[in-house]
Amino acid sequence: MSAPRTVLLTGAAGGVGTLMRELLPPYGYELRLLDVVPVRGEPNAIVADLADRAALREAVRGVDAIVHLAGISLEADFEKIVAANIAGTYNLYEAAREEGVRRVVFASSNHAVGFTRQPREGEPLIPVDTPHRPDTFYGLSKCFGEDLAQLYWDLHGIETVSVRIGSCFPEPTSVRMLSMWLSPADCARLLHATLTAEGVAHTVAYGSSANTRAWWDLSTARALGYDPQDDSEVHAEKLIAARGLPEKGSADDLYLGGHFCVNPPRWPH
Ligand code: NAI
Ligand code: 15L
Fold first, then answer.
1. Which of 27, 29, 93, 138 is catalytic?
2. Nearest CA residue ID for atom 13, ligand 2
3. What is the pTM of this model?
4. How confident is the model at residue 269 (pLDDT cuts 50, 70, 90)?
């Protein structure tokens, strides 16, 4: 596949979308933006719900690839997750199939494997083929998205990289995030790799920076060409002083998904 130029960025008004609107164009991409809410400062952004199949079909027409960030990004009632993340992702893949788009990057999450135990010192890092262990309906929808991506590769030849994002924010804001942090600059590096790597079929990759305290194995992402430059360790001393280490035996101490396993933050509506 030749390097994509025009990329549809769904979820463009969100946290990661806002960061990527700044950081992806320098790699040479022309972004087409979509979100269910208007994108501030972007009058040409498409305002459409993932439920609107006609709008999605028009939105994907002529793009070289899709970066799919849109959806509910925290826990919510099952029905809402089904509509936005499950039916919505299906609708987008159908639009891609109908319009001949050959490459999707799917924003999966650490919460697809959230009930996986954190590796202790000396234990191997978590590989990408560890079984799905969702910690929420939200995490379950990411498992669905990964399987949907596999189906659309096997059945229709649409390639996807499913990136299990750790925590993509300007800075890590919890001790757990010292292990999961994906700096915005590394996120852009990773997305560029996922968009340009040859022959990805359906690949699952973990998305974090080169964190000293990493829990998972970045070799799949590195094989795509990702070369992370950041390490959350520069924030460690301040964060640990402010927050303390997680209580022994708590979800934050035991599981990749941390507090999502017992008290997930909820989508605000
Ligand atoms: P966010 O909640 O800030 O942004 C999501 C965007 O999707 C919002 O602008 C929202 O309006 C839009 N959206 C929601 N439902 C929609 C619908 N039905 N139709 C169209 N647009 C809709 O989330 P964030 O943090 O930017 O995350 C982006 C993606 O990455 C999400 O899929 C999230 O699950 C995933 N992710 C993010 C992580 C992070 O650390 N930020 C970690 C793991 C995964
Ligand atoms: C996610 O999947 C969420 O979308 C994001 O808001 C963070 O909570 C992140 O995981 C995390 O685990 O830190």
1. 138
2. 167
3. 0.98
4. low
% of the chain surpassing 90 pLDDT:
98
Q: Residues near 248 by Cβ (< 8 Å), separated by ≥ 6?
A: none
Quote the percentage of the chain above a pLDDT of 70. Answer: 99
Q: Is 138 a catalytic residue?
A: yes
Q: What is the CATH number of the domain that holds 32?
A: 3.40.50.720
Closest CA to 158 of 207, 94, 113, 210: 94
Domain region containing 203 = 6-261
Task: Compute the mean pLDDT over every residue in the chain, rounded to the nearest whole number.
Answer: 97
Quick check: is 269 in a domain? no
Residue 91 covered by a domain: yes
Residue 267 lies in a domain: no
Q: Cβ(202) to ligand 2 under 6 A?
A: no
Name all residues whose Cβ lies below 6 A of ligand 1. Answer: 11, 13-17, 35-37, 49-50, 69-73, 84, 88, 107, 109, 165, 167-168
Which burial class, exposed, middle or buried, applies to 17 when counting CB atoms under 10 A from its CB (0-12, 13-18, 19+)?
buried
Residue 256, both tokens: 């990749």
Query: What span, in angstroms and rounded, lies between the C-alpha atoms of 269 and 267?
Result: 6
Q: Specify if 193 maps to a domain.
A: yes
**Residue from 245, 232, 237 nearest 171 by CA:** 232
Strand pairing report for 46-47 and 65-68: unpaired
Distance, CA 130 to ligand 1 centroid (Å)? 24
Number of the ligand closest to the Cα of 86: 1
Q: How many domains does the chain fold into? A: 1
